[in-house]
Specification:
The complex is a heterotrimer of chains A (about 160), B (about 170) and C (about 550). Helices cover about 30% and strands about 15% of the residues of chain A. With about 160 residues, chain A is of the alpha/beta class. Chain A has a 5-stranded parallel sheet with strand order 2-1-3-4-5, with helices on both faces. With about 170 residues, chain B is of the alpha+beta class. Chain B has one domain: 2-Layer Sandwich (Alpha-Beta Plaits). Chain B starts with 8 loop residues before the first helix and ends in a 5-residue tail after the last helix. Chain C is of the alpha+beta class. Chain C has 2 domains: about 120 residues, Beta Polymerase, domain 2 (2-Layer Sandwich), CATH 3.30.460.80; about 325 residues, Cytochrome-c3 Hydrogenase, chain B (Orthogonal Bundle). Chain C is globular, with a radius of gyration of 23 Å. Chain C starts with a helix and ends in a 24-residue tail after the last helix. Classes of the chains: A alpha/beta (about 160), B alpha+beta (about 170), C alpha+beta (about 550). At the A-C interface, strand 1, helix 1 and helix 2 of A face helix 5 and helix 9 of C.
């Protein structure tokens, strides 16, 4: 992790067509019970002030150009944090006509246009709970260990035939 | 209340005290035992029938035929909406729900969980069908099926047609 | 058949129009008219019979009967009736008379039908609304031949489209703005410090839900889709969808399930209104109030998780019942927690309204007169703040609302304070409703035994969401809805902003916009208004907080 990001992370919140549940939880994280400002996290007014972009939603076609503009405007090193199931994997609308289906498709488009993103974080959850956001902040800052890893399990057959 | 009524907020604040949870430094969260988190597969119980795949609203669960005699049940946590419908419909109770919400990662491949199934081979045509575990499950539940379960559905159908043909002395065209 | 006087009256009206058919099932009247009689009937219903306009739905019925169809849904709240007016439209040349000059509330839904189905409306200006500018012409997503996962090749236009200039100074708000939690765009035209006009443009959150509901997903899966229309009033959408299907298929839902639905609906109303009160305090610059309200709200969120398994009340509703029961222990805990919420909130609200600045800025700003409110068929607290006494929970009781007693707060001032007070009172009412329901919770099953859904049946259901009435319209199909239409409350309320913002100080605009509690993800699931003039993005100074 870049040493620049060990300190206070300023974030710009980018709703790309989410249902609001994640957005409300982002707001919730800033209120007394969770208080993300403990970690120096602050919502800022412009992507030009931000270290990280909090992206919620499956990226609708309408929002796409604006999302790209916002990412371009963020100074480097920039982190893109995909929050919630819509953003990470497209969620329930992963293949509808008016979305592009989440951050992985967005990263492909960014690559085509040669816009680099230094770090990408994924936070699944529908909606993400405030604690999950706090955990992700801890992960970015190196306060907690990563707990999830891909698993391949082999189904156990009973007979030998 | 007089003009300075709003100062009462200080009393309210004093009464509320500190409410901030110490998470992640201490396990002080608001997670209740009813919370629905990540699901887990028990590979000893899963038979690869695909009931969960049919029920899953966002298609976070998928069955993928690799074409090399294996069938993959793929669970993508990044698309899961944590509704636990799969748990409701699983015939063998192979899926359990957890309270786990600590799923953040910097590598999207961490979010996949795969159960690898071996496909059954038809004793007649050699084609692949269903899974071995599903075959075992059916035989366990209904032992009488053992006589024809090792044939794929197509061969079974053909066999039935041939049997009918014999009885009727030919199929009407 | 025994028929009540009010139904007789409607029947007489329909017969006087001529060449039309009248049927009536439960609380819904179905009328089929000739297109050239539509305007006449709409005028009688909307102005003479005092019906509200709920929405209109375009349906591609070519696979069924070779025609397009347009359903105008009116609501007679005083008599508890839904009135569905259907016209058949020629498939080759789909033109139907527009009724927007008679019923201003029908403006958006007509444009929606034009955009998504290609139905043309004569006698009005038509322009593209919902779909992004890059969307190819002649492709209509809701026509049955268009696959749900059709994706046009993505073309990205950089920069913003700037059209002709306007002689007034423009203050744009959004679509990405620190305080805007949703991507929406307002353009305020100002003269000095006064707002003279307002334009709204949305559709950033159009995700194609309705098409998805009638293609990939099955009946029971649509519940989970409906929840995700909106992250705040999700359960309302889910219940409304379930009620519509249950009505169409005549499924008997166990009483206990209906009670649980009502309890969760009220919990959702409490958390939504608390959220709004907090955000309103924030907009007014009273951040202390914001933090304290959200502190209190956290308890409600905990209750929601206890009852449903998700902080956003997602995932317990199905057609035919609910998935999660409430046991004695939970019942006790919920009542205990709600008592704490009630006590804390009372104290806090008393303190909040004694803050002189807060009161001053709320009083007399953003006025929506009753006549305008009626013309636009506004809903929910916005209507009740303007003296329209309408609440679906009381007028067309659903779930378990007929079993309990509650007050519907109505204020006639129509300003921001009125809307604020309506919401505050509703929170306390909701707490009392939850307590009553938990007290009377009957025993029994929580899921209907058999669920069979016949094809080609129609159902209309309305549910009072925190922001107003949700309307879901359904035509059943095989294994999944044939057509599913959702009308969210904000859809009817946004046009009212034009009235509310005009001749107001610019500094009050953020509060006024927030005062209708706009929920764009609901609204945009399909619709948007666009003026076609000028789009430019500069963050404003006021700091508008808009959220679901």
């Amino acid at each position: 992790m870049s040493k620049f990001l060990k300190k206070s992370i300023w974030v710009f919140h980018l709703n790309t067509g989410s249902c609001n549940a994640c957005d409300i939880e982002i707001l919730d994280v800033l209120t007394p019970y969770f208080d993300a400002e403990r970690f120096g996290v602050k919502l800022v007014a412009s992507p030009r002030h931000a270290d990280a972009l909090l992206m919620t939603g499956p990226v609708t076609l309408e929002a796409l150009p604006k999302v790209i503009n916002a990412i371009e405007a963020t100074p480097r090193p920039r982190i893109l944090i995909a929050m919630g199931s819509c953003s990470v994997g497209g969620g329930i609308w992963h293949d509808t006509y008016s979305t592009i289906g989440g951050v992985r498709e967005l990263l492909k488009i960014l690559k085509e246009r040669e816009i680099e993103v230094d770090h990408v974080y994924y936070i699944p959850g529908c909606p993400i709970r405030p604690e999950a956001i706090i955990y992700a902040i801890g992960l970015i800052k190196g306060l907690v260990e990563k707990k999830i890893s891909s698993k391949v399990k082999k189904a156990v057959r009973r007979t030998s035939g | 209340m007089g003009k300075l009524g709003f100062i009462k907020i200080l009393v309210i604040a004093g009464e509320a005290g500190r409410v901030t949870r110490r998470y992640p430094f201490k396990p002080e969260t608001l997670v209740s035992e009813d919370f629905r988190g990540r699901i887990e597969f028990d590979e000893t119980k899963c038979i690869g029938c695909g009931a969960c795949v049919n029920a899953c609203p966002p298609n976070a669960l998928e069955l993928v035929d690799k074409g090399d005699g294996t069938l993959l049940l793929k669970y993508f946590i990044g698309r899961c909406i944590f509704c636990w419908r799969c748990i409701d419909v699983c015939p063998t109770g192979a899926i359990t729900g957890t309270r786990d919400f600590e799923l953040a990662t910097n590598d999207v491949s961490d979010l996949y969980e795969v159960v690898v199934h071996e496909r059954a081979e038809c004793s007649e045509c050699g084609g692949k069908y269903s899974t071995i575990r599903q075959k075992e499950y059916v035989v366990e539940a209904v032992p009488i099926t053992e006589s024809y379960i090792d044939k794929c559905p197509d061969c079974r159908k053909n066999k039935l047609l041939r049997a009918l043909e014999r009885r009727r002395g030919g199929v009407y065209e | 058949m025994d028929i009540s006087p009010i139904l007789k009256n409607y029947k007489k009206i329909v017969e006087s129009i001529g060449k039309s058919s009248f049927t009536h099932v439960g609380d819904t009247i179905y009328i089929i008219v000739e297109p050239n009689k539509l305007r006449e009937l709409a005028e009688i219903l909307y102005w003479k019979m005092n019906c509200y306009h709920r929405t209109c739905v375009g349906v591609d019925e070519r696979p069924l009967n070779g025609h397009f169809a347009l359903y105008h849904i009116f609501g007679d709240d005083t008599n508890g009736l839904h009135i569905v007016v259907k016209v058949y439209i020629d498939p080759e040349d789909p033109v139907v008379p527009s009724i927007t000059d008679i019923v201003p509330a029908a403006d958006w839904c007509e444009l929606e039908a034009y955009d998504l189905l290609g139905i043309k409306f004569s006698g009005r200006k038509l322009y593209r609304l919902v779909l992004p500018p890059t969307w190819p012409h002649g492709v209509y997503p809701l026509r049955k031949e268009t696959p749900y996962n059709y994706r046009p090749s993505v073309k990205i236009i950089s920069g913003e489209e700037i059209g002709e200039s306007h002689d007034k100074a423009v203050v744009p708000v959004g679509p990405y703005h620190p305080a805007l939690h949703e991507p929406e765009y307002f353009e305020l035209y100002v003269e000095g410090e006064r707002v003279v006009d307002v334009k709204y443009r949305g559709f950033h959150v159009h995700r194609g839900i309705e098409k998805l509901g009638e293609s990939r997903t099955t009946y029971q899966q649509v519940n989970f889709l409906a929840e995700r229309i909106c992250g705040i009033c999700g359960f309302e959408h889910s219940v409304c969808y379930a009620l519509a299907v249950e009505k169409a298929a005549k499924i008997d839902v166990p009483e206990r399930a209906q009670y649980i639905r009502s309890i969760v609906l009220e919990i959702e109303r409490i958390h939504s209104h608390l959220l709004w009160i907090g955000v309103a305090a924030h907009v007014l610059g009273y951040d202390t109030g914001f933090m304290h309200i959200w502190r209190i709200r956290e308890l409600v969120m905990y209750i929601a998780e206890k009852l449903t398994g998700s902080r956003k009340t997602y995932g317990i509703n199905l057609i035919g019942g609910v998935r999660k029961d409430i046991n004695e222990e939970k019942k006790k805990e919920v009542i205990e927690k709600l008592e704490i919420v009630e006590k804390d909130l009372k104290k806090l609200i008393d303190t909040m309204v004694s803050v002189p600045e807060l009161k001053k800025r709320l009083t007399g700003t953003g006025i929506l007169p009753k006549s305008e409110a009626r013309k636009l068929s506004v809903v929910g607290p916005t209507a009740r703040g303007s003296g329209l006494d309408r609440d679906i929970r009381r007028d067309l009781p659903y779930a378990a609302y007929s079993e309990i007693s509650f007050k519907v707060p109505v204020y006639s001032e129509g300003d921001n304070l009125a809307r604020f007070l309506v919401r505050v009172e509703e929170v306390f009412e909701s707490i009392s409703i939850v307590k009553q329901l938990l007290d009377q919770l009957p025993r029994g099953d929580i899921m209907a035994e058999s669920i069979e859904i016949p094809e080609r049946k129609m159902g209309v259901a309305a549910v009072e969401a925190p922001r107003g009435e949700d309307v879901h319209f359904i035509i059943t199909g095989r294994g999944k809805p044939y057509r599913w239409k959702v009308r969210a409350p904000t859809y009817n309320n946004i046009p009212a902003l034009k009235v509310m913002l005009r001749d107001q100080a610019l500094a009050d605009a953020p509060l006024t916009i927030a005062s209708i509690d706009p929920c764009f993800s609901c609204t945009d699931r399909i619709v948007v208004i666009k003026d076609g003039r000028r789009y430019k993005l500069i963050p404003n100074k006021g700091g508008v907080v808009l959220y679901g």
